[in-house]
Amino acid sequence: MNLYLAAKMTEFKFVARIIDLYTEERIAVINSKDAMRLDIKPFDRIRIRKGEKAVYSSVYLSEKLTESGVIGVTKVVADAVGLKDRDEVLVELAPQPLSLVYIKKKMKGETLTKDEIHKIVEDIATGNIGPLETLAFALTEYFVGLDMNEIEYLTRSMAEVGDRLDFGEPVYDKHSIGGVPGNKVSLLIVPIVAASGLLIPKTSSRAITSPSGTADTMEILTNVELEAEEIIKIAKKVRGCIVWGGMLNLAPVDDLIIRVEYPIGIDPEPQMMASILAKKLAVGVNNLVLDIPTGKGAKVETIEEAERLARKFIEMGDRLGIHIRCGITYGEQPVGHAVGPALEAKEALKALMGEGPASLIEKSLSLAGLLLEMGGIAPIGSGYSVAKEIWRKREAYEKMRQIIEAQGGNPNIKPEDIPIGEHIHTIYSPVDGYVTKVDNRAITEIARAAGAPRDKGAGVLLYVKRGYKVRKGEKIMEIYAERSTKLQDAIRVLNRYLPVVVEGMLLKTVSKGEMYLS
Amino acid sequence: MNLYLAAKMTEFKFVARIIDLYTEERIAVINSKDAMRLDIKPFDRIRIRKGEKAVYSSVYLSEKLTESGVIGVTKVVADAVGLKDRDEVLVELAPQPLSLVYIKKKMKGETLTKDEIHKIVEDIATGNIGPLETLAFALTEYFVGLDMNEIEYLTRSMAEVGDRLDFGEPVYDKHSIGGVPGNKVSLLIVPIVAASGLLIPKTSSRAITSPSGTADTMEILTNVELEAEEIIKIAKKVRGCIVWGGMLNLAPVDDLIIRVEYPIGIDPEPQMMASILAKKLAVGVNNLVLDIPTGKGAKVETIEEAERLARKFIEMGDRLGIHIRCGITYGEQPVGHAVGPALEAKEALKALMGEGPASLIEKSLSLAGLLLEMGGIAPIGSGYSVAKEIWRKREAYEKMRQIIEAQGGNPNIKPEDIPIGEHIHTIYSPVDGYVTKVDNRAITEIARAAGAPRDKGAGVLLYVKRGYKVRKGEKIMEIYAERSTKLQDAIRVLNRYLPVVVEGMLLKTVSKGEMYLS
């Protein structure tokens, strides 16, 4: 293969048509005859140009779907260059992308320059390199790693290739590296911090692999799909918000990278750091509390590992002008008792109203306290108690009502107003004993099989957590689903896992090493 | 992500329709409404089952392209399970493939068992894991490697998942690891060896990254697209053939792996070994001469490296029951003078008729000689001279005429009958001096830009090779093209390279480090 930049070839005129084919992949369809004329071979990519804007795409051939002279494009391709039906475009065989040379350089263990990394990020954004090349880059990060300079360049480039929010004043934020189900702490932290007067405009994500992202949970209470200008207006007015970041084109390359990492199930550390921090840069965050859930079954398994990662994040924050404090939290079991959008929103709302599981409230107050200290609202060491006061006096609940209303929801929503799945399966303890384990992955898989996050009312409610004492026949967990077929799916998944282990419980080992709840 | 085998979900009935969309990717199109019903999310894969046969596919959504209840599939999907238009199929969301667990195990540096590797190969074949997962496997081979046991398992599995040819007697073969343009030696070796009486049914490939594969070159002289039974019949009759292996479903997983390696430009050694040897196992090869072109600009750069690779191939051959001898050959410049299908076929035919460049004839006779020794036709050490006698007496030419005729071509074809491109660009030496370099990659890129291998008459003809003395103004190279636009493309590529370096020639360095022929 030619790794040099190929000579510029000829452009051909086409009329664009947006085709009725929905996929996130960048795909164009041309007539087989035109393919001959353009010398298109399998695996080739084309460049579609409209004026100064260009997008790169895979190309499929068709006899009839598009007639000669017409190029059918998927919506993502059209959106990338602002194409409308019947627009004239110029099409050429894409030259070998220069960024592939840099990816291969990194594959050999060499160090990349700022410009080289920027070119890779730019080429992922335009589609000049496609999913395979993007995965090659992510896997090279996994196997070879990036040094601190490279991570800094990657972070800055990812933020630059996309839009930014400017609040014109110091911005506070909280982020979790994830991996623990039920982690609805942002719904408590944001109103506590906003109630203190600090600005905390939280852009959050929807679930990719979890039963509910913060945006999915918040959506139960109010609208989370807001435009940039609305977000700025709302945040300035009520000092905080919890919105979905997906509409804002913040570090959009992140999504393209996640899309290829997801099927493989990788999340290499340099990319995780760059992805988190690029979005923070794009939102103009100056002060960040980073939650690092730690323990068996979490992303980070040991305290030593969590400390190492925390130091790395803090150093990277210094380079980027973001003041970071890390909270290493207990990550071996779900946070609180509820897992799934509606169940979690219900639990968070109850907690804001003064009543909720200690694991949820303590964690939220601790992390909020760190932010209050960073913002000078509380002296160092007393952030937790100041946060607790804000929560205890219902100032956080009052603030949440303002946020819900500002985002377009009903501020008077009550926990009991929130509908949850009507198809319920209850699991009882088979023995007397102490709960020795609540398995994150099992809970996640069961909740997702039950329909979460798409079915908002689906999820899992835990009646016990690690260390609880239970009696034989006592309720330990409920599965909620909106559809009976999904409940059956969840029960099938349940039968492959041990979501809750009670000491003394019989573990039946069957062939292929799978274990069933006795 | 769930790395456990998910519980079996429900199958839905669909009517299949083969859609007018050509791509090598496995793609199905369903109506958006059905997607809701099946709970299809972006990135999901589906399993399409017809009776006992199943294929896995990506899924795109459409409003109108397929109505509810209909699933549109590309031809590769249909072919995989023998689907015809309007066949009823059962569709379900694909469970997480078990082979992904094994790929991730290997990513962590662990060793895979025979069964685990077989599952990976099987899942690549059915599409149960798609291009991204396949690339993850190939890149893991690149970064982590495979040990000899793993390579053996991979080779055997790749051969098993596919068809086989059975000639019922010892089979001889020659293979080059590639990387050197103009390497048309098989067109001399096969008739020499067949003329000796040994059976040499050569299945060859078309070019992927080179200007001409052996199948492309042979196709100038005769038909190369033959069915398995014809190949066996022809080979038994005339003792040899040179056909395209692409129709025979030999180790088909190889193609699926190459398809993802190609855009990245990787060819990890374990995969290269397994790919070559799986095809040999599938054809029942017992005795193989492996050509390892070596030197700067070839795949293998040093003799030490070539020897290491040779030993590895020989050991792997022992494990697989294939007797292998390796020829380490000079690979720093093209073999012979001609590059491109028609130009190479012309040169090979001339050489068989007694007249041709020493580099082509010597290399062919040496490698053919090794096979004659392996087959007991020549005593050890005298293979070359026996091969030379067969060539000198025109027995090889006579045999080639028989092969051409048996495969359906005209045995009386003369070199001057072969049409070559009429658009010609000549390059003259700018100075007096010795040729110090003929660059493989530059020649390859120029020939491909000129249209090779698709335009059969396109390519490059070298008038000089390394060590030749030339005068200023003397012809050093010609570019041939069938179309003037392609000739212009080739000239543009030429201007970025130094395909031939004559000592004392001015190398003009321009910005960005590109060099032009002065």
Characteristics:
518 residues; Barwin-like endoglucanases; Pyrimidine Nucleoside Phosphorylase, Chain A, domain 2; 4 domains; six-stranded mixed barrel
Notes on the structure:
The structure is a homodimer of 518-residue chains. Chain A has 18 helices and 20 strands. With 518 residues, chain A is an alpha/beta fold. Chain A has 4 domains: 12-93, Barwin-like endoglucanases (Beta Barrel); 98-145; 172-248 and 267-406, 3-Layer(aba) Sandwich (Pyrimidine Nucleoside Phosphorylase, Chain A, domain 2); 423-517, Pyrimidine nucleoside phosphorylase-like, C-terminal domain (Aldehyde Oxidoreductase, domain 3), CATH 3.90.1170. In chain A, strand 19 and strand 20 form a beta hairpin.
Describe the secondary structure blueprint for this structure:
The structure is a homodimer of 518-residue chains.
Chain A: E1 12-18, E2 27-31, H1 32-38, E3 45-50, E4 53-62, E5 70-73, H2 75-81, E6 88-93, H3 98-107, H4 114-126, H5 131-143, H6 148-160, E7 172-176, H7 186-195, E8 200-204, H8 214-218, H9 228-238, E9 240-244, H10 253-264, H11 269-283, E10 287-294, H12 303-320, E11 323-330, E12 338-339, H13 341-352, H14 358-374, H15 383-392, H16 395-406, E13 423-428, E14 433-438, H17 440-449, E15 459-462, E16 469-470, E17 475-481, H18 484-494, E18 500-502, E19 507-509, E20 515-517
Helix pairs in contact in A: 3-4, 3-5, 4-6, 5-10, 6-11, 6-12, 7-14, 7-16, 9-16, 14-15, 17-18
